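It is worth pausing here to work through a concrete case rather than discussing structure prediction in the abstract. The textbook approach is simple: state the sequence, then state the predicted structure, then interpret. We follow exactly that order.
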Amino acid sequence: MSDKYNGIPIIKLWHLLLVPLQGELTDDIADQMTSEVLERIHQDGSSGLVIDITALWMVDSHLCSVLSQLSASASLMGAKTVICGMKPEIALTLETMGVQLGSTATTLTLEGALEVLGARTPHFDDNDASSAPTADTAQRREEDRHFKREGMP
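Step two, the predicted structure:
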């Protein structure tokens, strides 16, 4: 990584990578990010990639193309990509321009993206937020153990 590059964080969450994008992304930074994310998928053996664009100021057709290429490349490496946090004005602009994201999944929130990729948040009793996990959580854990033994349907 060059000293001039102000790195975009690539955060490992279990078997997933989270890439939160902020501000304005130049073409050079987008290209560097693509290389680094694909390298991390390879190194970590990640099965999922979340690209959070909530804090991006603008998504133009070039950046959309970069994200689409990153998603397709990640898919070839066995990692499903979800883009989350798209603002209404960005979605409308991309649709108006005819920009396609291919088969890349999108969600409104980070939580939704993590859920699409199989990560679940613990559920607690509504009466007491500090209480231990409920029986429902134990059921999900058992389902997860079964899922790991049996594999994906």
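Step three, interpretation. Helices lie at 27-44, 61-76, 88-97, 110-116, 135-150. Residues 122-153 form one domain.
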